[in-house]
Design brief:
Helix content: 25-40%
Number of helices: 11
Shape: globular
Distance between the termini: 14 Å
Order of helices and strands: HHHEEHEHEEEHEHEHEHHH
Amino acid sequence: MKLIKLKKNIIKIFKQHGLNNIDSSICADALINAELVGAPSHGLSRLKMYCDRIKKKLINPKPRIKIKKISQSISHIDANNSIGFVAANLGIKTAIKNAKKTGIGLVGVKNSGHYGLSGYYAEQAVKKNLIAFCFTNAPPAIAPFGSKKKLFGTNPICFGTPTSSKIPFILDTSVSIINRGKLRVAASTGKKIPKNVALDKLGKPTTDAKKALVGVQLPIAEFRGSGLAWMVDILCGVFTGGNHAGKVKDPFDDFSGPQNIGHLFMVMKPNLFVGNYNQRINKNIKTIKKLPKLKGVRKIYYPGENKYNRYKSNLKKSIVIPKNILEVLKKLNAIK
């Protein structure tokens, strides 16, 4: 489907669910971006979930979002159970605005929902020649190290910086070996997941995605990954006023109340300490790219390069929508 047509259809769906035109457009852009960068697990496959939560009044389509200005650099946002895309869009833009004024912008968001890809927001700051950190917590998926009960989310960690190239450096990674979106896609298509990435509810290794979803996902690097998940839970939950310690509700399966997810955005001018940041980052990347390569490795990529190349390539094409997703769009009355 052509990008313009797809965006119109998604906007139509969100407007039918009570969002205004601007917020619907924000949501459509975020979902389409996920498809373009090759992350369909965070794209159209989640559209029905957002609509279901709006219908059940767990996402507020017309939120009264409040921004509390704590200082010239720091703001606290109460998203009023807004859809996560809208809350995060305001959060990163506020952080950018603060950083442009003072050199650093720190924004905490509470009462939000799932916001898609963290890298999407970091890239907005990088395009303004700023360094960015983006964090969000998520529903229980990972067990704290030493426990057999899942409690932490896959809690992504994201860092972005401008480079001397047109391609931004964007590290966006969950702290689980496999992200939860991929599990859901595998579960819906009946595909097996890799070994040693998840346990079933009895604590036994499994390659069955459905069993993994009700079981436990394994963190990267054992206790280190668990510790990073805990760090994000503190920053986004304890620190911002959002839910934490396993209280974030699963958007697909738990309709007992709003998610109250927390986000944290920290944005900085790259020249706060040295005036020649662009030259230094350029030298840093060139040095690493010139390192001797392993057999079979043609090129050393920095985080974000492959994703950017996929985006540019996919931007020239129509988006191929799987049949099951196309049926969802039809049921949501976007396509006749």
